[in-house]
Amino acid sequence: MHRTAFRTLSLLGSRGQGALLRRYFDWWHRNPDPWRMGTDAYEQAKYAATLTQVPVRPYRRILEVGCSEGVFTGLLLDAFPDAEITGLDISERALARAAERVTGHDGRTRLMAADILTFASDQPYDLVFCAETLYYLGRRDRLKRASEQLTRLLAPGGVLVLVHPWPEARRLHRFVSAGPLSQVSELVENAAHRPFSVCVYEAGTAGSTGAG
Ligand SMILES: C[S@@+](CC[C@H](N)C(=O)[O-])C[C@H]1O[C@@H](n2cnc3c(N)ncnc32)[C@H](O)[C@@H]1O
Question: Which CATH superfamily is domain 3-202 in?
């Protein structure tokens, strides 16, 4: 579905938008791995580039927003063997496949069907990823709300990693960039046939003010 159609969907109230996105992404996942994330060389290179950007720290609680069938979730389980990983997606069908993919990791994975626009967690995360997802949220106020949600989900000192096509990433990341998090780095991979940006942000620690 074209980006314009997702913008039109976002004219609905957020419950209506969430219900239609859920139906659409369940339908989109009617066949396994619809984006060929498990096999496509470009996707694998993007995952590897993303992981190189993550500051080295002892992360305990990691959240992946828009985890689809759990391809990157599996890489996170290998990259962070001491962390609990939560994969969140609006599509239950995608999560059912993600569950098959991540079985046998000592119960370190939680998979949650939720809409990032309304998701609430009783505990914050040390590291949050959101890749190739924000462009589905549509109009400005929904993107702003999602950006606030991603920011709010971080523990003090927590790290947020956003990965989206370049140069559209400038627009998609702008509310996070303008918020209370500090930008740590940005990798722009221009050589790829579909350029992308990996932006890393950090929350202030307790007692610090955080930079904008
Ligand atoms: C293109 S896939 C990205 C998969 C993964 N992040 C990656 O890069 O390999 C986008 C995923 O976002 C999910 N999604 C779309 N809108 C969402 C929302 N409002 N809340 C949570 N997940 C959403 C879709 O179901 C889909 O699985």
Answer: Vaccinia Virus protein VP39 (3.40.50.150)
